[in-house]
């Protein structure tokens, strides 16, 4: 009976570890994407700033380019930059939380293996 309980506990810990690892990878990918968006907005702003106000500027919409005033494009890029920074901060908080959860699950697994050393052999025999 204790073996079944330990096995069930291991399976539960393993499932939560797999879930947390997947969520952590997803958050890391989202952070990478937002970093790219932030960099693109920053570089675009750097190119727009030195241009005179009366310069014709175009905004890409799909395959079409639409004439927009420089001020509008600059405001859009500044907003994208701010939004990306806010999203990165939020994702960083999520990442830290998920890392803490992962560490907690790892500690639970260690405790289980220390309490019941024989379960490691059972787990190995289950995987073969």
UniProtKB/TrEMBL annotation:
InterPro entries, per the entry: PFD_beta-like, Prefoldin
Gene that produces this protein: LOC104766602
Name this protein carries in UniProt: Prefoldin subunit 1
Keyword check for Phosphoprotein: no
Family: Belongs to the prefoldin subunit beta family.
One Pfam entry name: Prefoldin_2
The entry's keywords: Chaperone
Organism in which the protein naturally occurs: Camelina sativa (False flax)
Native organism taxonomy: Eukaryota, Viridiplantae, Streptophyta, Embryophyta, Tracheophyta
Gene3D superfamilies, sorted: 1.10.287.370
